């Protein structure tokens, strides 16, 4: 918690103030003894390229977003610069990639609005 806070703000005695705030936090005390454990997800082994792809957006970088498609087997990366990250533009990029490389068996996303919209389904 300290590292995150200090990366945004700083004042004299910030360490002591953060420790004091955490010590007096009811929720922190309740979950300190038994933090929720996330289930580890193991991906199945892949036998060929383009069986599973992972998609996401990166940016903004110099006023552009980048749509990334990564093949989990070969680590091949497709990058599409985009001014807007709409569902329509996302579908256009996927169609372009699928036309050249074929349809993947599995597409993994972060369930962002572009991937959960009615148009995408």
TrEMBL record:
InterPro entries: Integrase_cat-core, Integrase_H2C2, Retrovirus_Pol_polyprotein, RNaseH-like_sf, RNaseH_sf. Residues 45-121 form the Integrase catalytic domain. Its EC number is 2.7.7.49. It comes from the Eukaryota. It comes from Trichonephila clavata. This is RNA-directed DNA polymerase. One of its GO terms (biological process) is DNA integration. It holds the Pfam family rve. GO terms for molecular function: nucleic acid binding; RNA-directed DNA polymerase activity. The lineage of its organism: Eukaryota, Metazoa, Ecdysozoa, Arthropoda, Chelicerata. It is an enzyme of class 2 (transferase).
């Amino acid at each position: 918690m300290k590292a995150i806070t200090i990366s945004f703000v700083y004042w004299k005695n910030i360490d002591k103030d953060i420790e004091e705030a955490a010590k007096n936090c009811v929720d922190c005390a309740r979950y300190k003894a038994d933090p929720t454990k996330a289930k580890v997800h193991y991906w199945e082994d892949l036998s060929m390229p383009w069986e599973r792809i992972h998609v996401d957006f990166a940016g903004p970088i110099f006023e552009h977003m980048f749509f990334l498609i990564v093949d989990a087997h070969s680590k091949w990366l497709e990058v599409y610069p985009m001014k807007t990250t709409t569902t329509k533009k996302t579908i256009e990029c996927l169609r372009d990639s699928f036309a050249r490389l074929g349809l993947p068996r599995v597409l993994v996303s972060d369930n962002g609005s572009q991937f959960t919209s009615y148009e995408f389904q």
